[in-house]
Specification:
Largest sheet: none
Distance between the termini: 23 Å
Order of helices and strands: HHHHHHHHHHH
Number of strands: 0
Amino acid sequence: MKTMRTVPALLGLGSLLVAGGCVMPDQLSQIQKDLADVRQQLRRVQTEQTQTTRKLEDLEAQAAEPSTRVDRAEIADLSLRVDQLTREAAIADERLRDLDSRMDRVARDVDQGRQRGVTSRPLPIPQTTPGPQTGAPGRPAATAGGPADALPDPEALYNTAYADFSKGNYALAVSGFEEYQEKFPDTALADNALYWVGECHFSQGNFPDAIRAFDGLLERYPNSDKAAAGNLKKAMAFLEQNQIGQAIVQFRYVDSTFPGSDEAKIARDKLTSLGASI
C-alpha cells in the first residue's frame, strides 16, 4: 500500500487550489473526508480480520487433536468470514490507492499553477444574435462546443460516481464511471473508472459482469496500475462462481506476474487455502 498523505498536510492545499483554479474547496473537502472514512473502514476490517483469523486457527488446531470435539460448521462459517473480510480489505485498499493518486494529481496541479502564475480570468461575454423585428433582446448564439455540446466536468463526474459507489448506489456508480471512461478515455483516471465498474458488479454479486469489466480494463489499459487488482478480482469472481479451476489459474497468474505486490500475497494465500500448488 502506498504511503498516504496526512490530512493536516492536505489542509494547507486549500488556498493554493482555490487561487490556482485547480479544484473547488468542496471537492478537496470531499477527498479529505473520503480518505478519513476509508482509513477508518480499513482499520476496522483489518482488526476483525486478525481476530477472526486467530479464532479460526485456534479451532483448526483443536480439530487436529483426536480427543477434542469441534463444531465443523463454526469452522466453515469463520472461514467464509475471513474470505469476506479479505475482499473488503482489498476493496478498501484499492480505494485508498485511488484517493492517493487523486491527491497526487492535485499536488501536481498546484505546482504547475505556481509555475505558470495562474490567475483568474473573467468569463467571456456570450455573443448574441439579432432579436426579432419587434426589437426583443437577442439570445446567445449557438456555437459549436456551446452549452448543449459541452462535456461534463471530468472531476465532478468521477467524484459523483465515486460517491455513489461509496454509498452503495452501484447502478448509479456504474453509469457514472462508464460515462467518464467513454468521454475521457485518455485521462489518468479512465482505467480507474473501469476498475470501479467491475467492483460495483462484484459488490452486487454480478460476477460475470464483473469479469467482463475487469477484462475491459486489462484490454484497454494493459499497463494500468490497477492491472494487479483487476486480475486478482477476476480470480475472486471465478471463485465466487465455484469455477475453481479458472480461479486457481488466475491466482497463479497474479502471483507470477505481480510478485511482491499485496495482490500476489492474497493470491498465494488463496491458493494455499484451496490446496493448490503455487
